[in-house]
Every structure is written in structure tokens, then in C-alpha cells.
Design goal:
Number of domains: 1
CATH topology: Nitrilase/N-carbamoyl-D-aminoacid amidohydrolase
Shape: globular
CATH superfamily: Carbon-nitrogen hydrolase
Order of helices and strands: EHEHHEEEHEEHEHEEEEEEHH
Radius of gyration: 18 Å
Strand order of the largest sheet: 5-4-3-2-1-14
CATH architecture: 4-Layer Sandwich
Number of helices: 8
Largest sheet: 6 strands, mixed
CATH class: Alpha Beta
Structural class: alpha/beta
């Protein structure tokens, strides 16, 4: 496994429902990132289709990993020798009306794995539970660019899932997002908190642009295990930022901030008990 990797944050403005356009943008950014020696490029939540798809979701969803869009991106990752993470609408193989908000990881050898969004916001402008089933797994992917854990947007509000990913060995936790501007301060705070409490790198890649009157603020970032902001993309416009991550920093940080050593696992049972009786 590499000790250092270069990570590209691809903050893009998607066209809602236009997979061909969005794929072309993703392919172009992937080639550019590879030219700048990136090992991994990350695109936002639902980058393949845009976020505000509403009832178009049933037409736009694809199975994972058999869908044509994944196959097309596999060609790029194999040719460019790069890893890609992106968000898409996943259609269940068992029931066509069962859809998921999914993050997909593809590498030089093809499809590696997926994560289905666990926490689905259904309040204010959000209506994800109307369309999606929640995920029930928190997979960790061991690759030659590190041990990776994936979450999606609203998941970052819930420390339990990032804690679980860290306990399963994640060195790099990646949050792809479609956060509107009114939530900016929340995400800026929570991404730092999740990194510090887990002594892990936290990469956040957010959508940018306006979809159906909803403005997405961008602000993609990389947060070090000590909470230091080591890279920041522009606000309110497309950007491609590439930054080095040094995994040896994890060991140094764990020595001075030993949160994993000091965990009290007996409290997890109490947490479950109280949550079941809300």
C-alpha cells in the first residue's frame, strides 16, 4: 500500500438528467487529474445525474456494477490508471422501484465496491425517503491507495457511522455531498469534527451550481487527522484541487489524540437502547 497519495477533489456543476454530459465532464477531469499525478479523483453526490432529479430517478437509475455508466468509467480508470469515486442512482437488481443513493468506487482493475447512503434527509427541501431505500452496510475497501470508507452528505451528521468505518480500519473517510448553501456552516464544522474524533483523514467533495432554484456551495476540502484544513476548493464555482495525503500522519496524531484507545465500547449498548426508545 502506498504511504502517500495524491487526491483530486472534482467539484463539478452537473446537468440534471443529462448523464452523457456529466460523464464527459467526469472523464475530462479524470484525465486532467492523472496528468497532475493524482491517484484518486472524487466527484460529488449523484454526480452522474445531478441531485434534483425528482421523478426522473426511475428513468436514470442503473444497476451496480452492471450499468453502462460504470462500464464507461471503468474504461477511463483502466486507461489512466486512476481510482474514481462518484455518486449515482442505483437500481436494485430485485425490484426496479427500489432505488438507492449510492457512492461507487472504481479502480484500474475495474469495479471495487459501493456504499448506499444510510441517512436519508426528508425535511425542508429534501425528500430522499420518498425515492430511496436506506443502506444498511458500512463497507471498508482495502486498496493499494489506502483503506477507504465512504459516506454521503447527511451521513456526516451522525458520528456513529464514521466511527464504525474507523474501527473497521479506514484511514481515509470520503464524504461526497450535495449540500445547499444554507447548510455550509454545518458541513464546515462537522467535517473537522469527524476527522478529529476518529484521527482519520476526511475528504469532503460537494456539488456546485444551481438546480431547480437550489444553490450548492462547493467548498470541497481535505481535513487532516488533527483537524487542520490542508486543502480547500472555491465556493460557488467549479474547481479541481489536488493535494497530497501522507498516511504516516495518522500514527503521529493517534499518539497525541488517542481517541480510539480511550473508547468506552460499553456505552455503545446504552446508545442503542436509548435510541430504540426515542
Amino acid at each position: 500500500m502506498l504511504k502517500e497519495i495524491n487526491v483530486a477533489l472534482a467539484q463539478i456543476d452537473c446537468k440534471v438528467g443529462d448523464k452523457e454530459h456529466n460523464l464527459t465532464v467526469m472523464e475530462r477531469n479524470s484525465r486532467q487529474a492523472k496528468q497532475e499525478n493524482a491517484n484518486l479523483i472524487i466527484f460529488p453526490e449523484l454526480a452522474l445525474t445531478g441531485y434534483m432529479c425528482r421523478d426522473l430517478v426511475y428513468e436514470l437509475a442503473e444497476p451496480v456494477p452492471e450499468g453502462p455508466s460504470i462500464r464507461r468509467l471503468e474504461e477511463v480508470t483502466k486507461k489512466e490508471d486512476i481510482h474514481v469515486i462518484f455518486g449515482m442512482l442505483e437500481q436494485s437488481e430485485k425490484a426496479r422501484a427500489a432505488l438507492y443513493n449510492t457512492a461507487v468506487l472504481v479502480g484500474p482493475n475495474g469495479f471495487i465496491g459501493k456504499y448506499r447512503k444510510t441517512h436519508l434527509p426528508t425535511h425542508s427541501v429534501f425528500e430522499e425517503k420518498r425515492y430511496f431505500r436506506p443502506g444498511y452496510q458500512a463497507p471498508v475497501f482495502e486498496t493499494n491507495i489506502g483503506t477507504l470508507g465512504l459516506i454521503i452528505c447527511y451521513d456526516v451528521f451522525f458520528p456513529e457511522i464514521t466511527r464504525l468505518l474507523r474501527l473497521k480500519g479506514s484511514q481515509l473517510i470520503i464524504c461526497i455531498s450535495a449540500s445547499p448553501a444554507v447548510r455550509r456552516e454545518f458541513f464546515e464544522t462537522l467535517t473537522v469534527a469527524r476527522a478529529i474524533e476518529n484521527t482519520a483523514y476526511l475528504v469532503y467533495v460537494n456539488l456546485v451550481g444551481v438546480e431547480d432554484g437550489l444553490q450548492f456551495w462547493g467548498g470541497s476540502r481535505i481535513v487532516a487527522p488533527n483537524g487542520k484544513l490542508i486543502s480547500q476548493a472555491k465556493h460557488d464555482e467549479e474547481d479541481l484541487v489536488i493535494e497530497k495525503i501522507d498516511y504516516t500522519d495518522l500514527e503521529r496524531t493517534e499518539t497525541f489524540v488517542p481517541t480510539l484507545r480511550d473508547l468506552r465500547p460499553e456505552l455503545f449498548d446504552l446508545l442503542k437502547e436509548q435510541a430504540e426508545n426515542l
